[in-house]
Amino acid sequence: MKNRTPILQLMIVSSLILLHPSGSVFAAENNTGAPDGVGLGASRVIYPSGSRGVSLKVNNTADNPFLVKSEVLDESGQHEAPFIVTPPLFRLDGGQSQALSIVRTGGDFPADRESINWVCVSSIPPEPDSAWDDSKRDAGKEKIAVAIRMLPVRCVKLFVRPSGVRGNSLDAANKVTWTIKGGAVVSSNPTPFYINISEASVEGKKLKMGKSYIPPFSEERYLLPHGIAKSNSVVRWSVIGDYGEEKEKTVTVK
């Protein structure tokens, strides 16, 4: 009788902790580079209100595979938004890319202005000698591997743009005004677009920004740096367009 030795390979490839970025979406924003392997192919996504879906590429520049989780969160980063991302959970091999399909499933978004959500991806690498790391696989041994090391979450803005909102955010930024009121620098956005700012300074001193955008028909207040005059001060700021392009603007606050 032939001796048969069954080989059991129990592959627990992930105990992927489904943590939302919570308030950290702002810290994770535009973190599209991939120093540890997984990165996003764009710094923002525009979703036309009448669209049947948009896509976003996820890239793995490392040699090893990652398990990647994708989702769309609301502006706060604490709740799921009415979108389906496909695939929601997938293995991404080294040197490969995966296109995410993002489809709106509902939601009551205003028709007179943009709305903001966040596309976020989180990833875990294989632990040393784990069964799903091809470079370390040993088919002759039983393996139980649980990967629980979560790498930093990456999030980019997802703007729902109504059909009635014409133009683009870069041109709309020309209508933003800056003033100094009391101990604050105030930026006012009279347009239906989210105005995205990478940085801003007054008289060469950087402003501390709680978030990197001015919502439609709203204003944002930034603490006035010490020693800055309340009039005739120069504000320099960089605005980010629909495709990630940046343009520096300068205005003198009267």
Automatic annotation (TrEMBL):
Its main location: periplasm. Keywords: Chaperone, Immunoglobulin domain, Periplasm, Signal. Residues 37-165 form the Pili assembly chaperone N-terminal domain. Residues 188-246 form the Pili assembly chaperone C-terminal domain. It comes from the Bacteria. Belongs to the periplasmic pilus chaperone family. This is Molecular chaperone. It comes from Salmonella enterica.
